[in-house]
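TL;DR need structure tokens for one chain.
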Amino acid sequence: MSFLNDMRFRAFCYQVGAIGLVATAAWTMFAAASDNLAKQNIATGFGFLARQAGFVISETAIAYQPTDSIARAILVGIVNTVKVSALAAILGTLLGLFVGVARMSRNPLLARLALAYVEVLRNVPLLLYLFLWYSLIILVFPPVKQALNILPGVYLSNSGLVLPALFVENGAAILALSVFASAIAAILIRRVATKRRIATGQSNHGALVALFVLLVPAFLLWVSGGVSLGWDIPQAGRFRLTGGLHVRPEFVALLFGLLLSVSASVAEIVRAGIQAVGPGQWEAAAALGLHRSRVMRLVVLPQALRLIIPPLTNTYLTVFKNSSLAIAIGYPDLVMVSNTVMNQTGQAIETIAIFMGVYLGLSIAISLMMNWYNARVALKER
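>> reply
TL;DR here they are.
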């Protein structure tokens, strides 16, 4: 019985026991709910996913028609959620990095403006910002009949921005395969060039070579006729704009709200990470004759990154979960599509279980990716 004194074995047993208790509780609640629904002659199960959806989704990132299945409609909501959340996370990180560095500026005006930016955005609920941006777009821009023709084929109105759309007429599969293979080759070339630069101390233009490898195959496919592209030019009618790419006000309002909220959090994380780097690093870099901007980019930020990544993970998780507020302004994300499905089918438990599982899966995927990157940038014992 000596294995009972092993802390790792006991910790494993505790975890298995906890998972067992949670699974038992979940199964008990599911069985009770199923029995109650069966007594009331309410259908259960996930067979409803194969039914025809029968409703329109105003914005779709993938092909969708009302005649498609409910499962396809839910997939559209998932893609819309991931699209706006990923864009907000990327753009918010870039903006937050700039604001966080500006907080540490020696220019008092720039530092105070960055401080005001952070404090204002952190102390106002996100939902109010969504209403603000959506109201501004609806009230400031003209109606569709009087849409502003900014450039040839570009229209702006309170229904959004309409742009000419580039699409692949034929050869889409070949183009996608070529881009995927080129991206892998560019990453490998970039990695080899970085290792060689570190070993030799000489610049070898690895980034330019990787960019060349990434772009040239697709260009050669287009020139040779293996892939043909076309333009979908918007047309202004009496009551609406047809054709082209529509950037709707709901998407813009949600993107701006999430982006600004993320940027404020990232700015504080970046500032804290920079301040955690010892002043001796600044002094040593200055003694070598490096300009302050290069000290920040080459010396301080790489060390601060090890402290920035862990709290940044929670920020990314938050932005994906906050995207559910899109239902307040009518953006067809996962929650809004799921609510429509619940109203049509009456199967609320299954639908709620689906989007809870989707959010759980997205959160776990983000955590795994950020933990992997955090392990790569962490200090290694020699």
